[in-house]
From TrEMBL:
Protein name (record): Battenin
Family, per entry: Belongs to the battenin family.
Lineage: Eukaryota, Metazoa, Chordata, Craniata, Vertebrata
Gene name for this UniProt entry: cln3
Any one GO cellular component localisation term in the record: late endosome
Keyword Translocase: no
Chief localization: other
Membrane association type: Multi-pass membrane protein
Example of a GO biological process term: lysosome organization
Amino acid sequence: MEQTTSISADRGQQSHGRLTYWRSWSGFWFLGLCNNFAYVVMLSAAHDILKKQESKNATSSIQTTLTMDFQGGNSSNSSRYDCNPVSTAAVLLADILPTLAIKLSAPFVIHKLPYGFRVLFCIIMAAISFLLVSFSSAVWMSILGVVFASISSGLGELSFLALTVFFTRDVLGGWGSGTGAAGVAGASLYSGLTQVGLSPQVTLLIMLVVPVVMSISYFVLLNHPPSFPQWRCREAEYRAVGTDERQQLMNESEDEQEPTAVNKNSGPLTIAEKLHVVKGLLKFVVPLGLVYFAEYFINQGLMELLYFPHFFLSHAEQYRWYQTLYQIGVLVSRSSLCCVKIRKLWLLCVLQMVNAVLLLFAVRYQFLPSAWLVFVIILYEGLLGGAAYVNTFYFISKEMDDRHREFAMAAASVGDSFGIALAGGVAFPVHKYFCGL
């Protein structure tokens, strides 16, 4: 009788453990999806955002200045590349510079703001971004909406990556897969809804469901440890997790890896300790930054110029589906952590740089025969970028000391943002050169 009771209790604990595991994994999957969704949609809508303002009869002084600065006074129709007066890199910079600023500064002070307040702020910023871009009547208003999306995404990414240290390490797989899914969902939904006839304005208003899903994922679905500091800040104890909760997490994990945990000693990291951790992160951050520089130079510097006038898709449609295929590649590779792990991050960096050089020459000399070949290259580009991202954070989580892990996960997120911002800056003169031909 006692043996039967014991077996039933063990089965109940195993069942509860599996439920907790999948709630945590799924929670991070949805958080990754929602956090990157607005960012992806803004990049997918970049061509439409600028076309919308260009097509208006009323030309504000802001648009006139941007047109003269970046196009040298050329009409958008005077170039063989069918260029917008303003490069889509303008949207990219508005989408990444606020994120970069947050990632450079926030890891040193963000521990003073409880996670619950951070997430609420991200939700509000994402909702405002969709509303602003949807109802914009000028370029500056659209760009401001993109900035709000960037703030939400940047703060959310570093917060949720740091949050993973309170759970088993395999939630990183859920986060990575969710961020990849955000690319596919954001780009394909925007492309699909506009393709069937909905206006960009209506499409963006539909996207307001995303901040709602984020709030449900974090506050309802995610299974927070009992001692998790949701609404309070504890300076004296640096995000401590009790031994009992840590052991419970170990029992609940179906993976043989040890779960990540936060060291319970002393207090918050000192500035000197944080700088030492940053130095150790360079071997991860530099390759990640270069991979993202190459791929976003392609996405926002060259992709708009890879236009095939006799293809069955229009220029705007070609651009949207380039973005969609890129995001499909990202989803596949960011979801591959359970199957393959790549420690040689520099190899991914070299391969992505080769992609960028190839497509740069393809734009200049127009030797690619069809958009179909570009579709394949863009898909491959997404595979490399997603693999670099998810493997970087996996090996940081695995190799960093418990005490340093929360800060390291947040600080390393600056790598991709720095590469993207650099790509946006380089894309402007490249766009001007090609559109002047």
